[in-house]
Design brief:
73 residues, 60s Ribosomal Protein L30, Chain: A, three-stranded mixed beta sheet
Length: 73
Amino acid sequence: MDNIKAIVVVARGTMEDAHKSTVQLTDIAHFEKFDAVYATYFTDIKPARDMVGSILGKNIRVEINIIFELSNS
C-alpha cells in the first residue's frame, strides 16, 4: 500500500481518488488483519473492493490492484 500511495502522490493524486480495488490474498484467513491495515490508507469512504483467495507466486502473500481517477490539473 505504501508503494501504491507513493505512485499516486507522484501523479498528483491521493488515496481518496481510488474508485475500485481488487485484492488477492494467498490465505483468506488473513482478511481481518489485511483489512485493518487497508483501512488506514483511506480517510473517507473506502473504494469498492473485490477480495479473493488466490494462488500467487513464490513468497507473494498479497496482490493489490487499484483504479484511480486523477484530474488533469
